[in-house]
Amino acid sequence: MDFVRIVDLTGWLRWDVLAADPPVGGDTAVNAFQTQHDRLLTGASRFTRMDDRTHARIVRRARRYAKLGFTLTQAAGRIALTLGRSREAVRLVLLRHEAAPRLGV
Question: Are 1 and 20 in contact, with CB atoms under 8 Å apart?
Fold first, then answer.
């Protein structure tokens, strides 16, 4: 059995995959990865991009929460629950929106 190292673009090791057979042209390693991480890949295939309307909705809701004294992270958590998105995705939308005026966007 061989280990196949998968490294991202920054050089950080992301996965050590135990391949049943030595990799031949890379297909064996890919198949081994897919087999071992089927649930992870299935979940990732359901990701969708947020459209401009969703971005605007997030910003509107965050403004309301800010008036109630919520922190950015607290507001992002609440908004994420109602939209079915991750807290981090919502938080990043808010951070980008906050930076936009300073960038002249």
Answer: yes
Instruction: Tell me the C-alpha to C-alpha distance, in Å, between residue 76 and each of 29, 83, 100.
Output: 38, 10, 18
What predicted TM-score, i.e. pTM, was given to this entire model?
Answer: 0.57
Query: What is the rounded distance in angstroms from the CA atom of residue 91 to the CA atom of residue 75?
Result: 8
Segment 19-47, tens digit of pLDDT: 555 555 557 778 888 888 888 887 777 77
Domain ranges (residues) in the chain? 2-44, 52-103
Q: Which DSSP symbol is given to 53?
A: H
Return the residue matching tokens 């890379």: 26
CA 37 to CA 27: how far, in whole Å? 15
Instruction: Single out the residue of 68, 4, 61 nearest to residue 32, CA to CA.
Output: 4
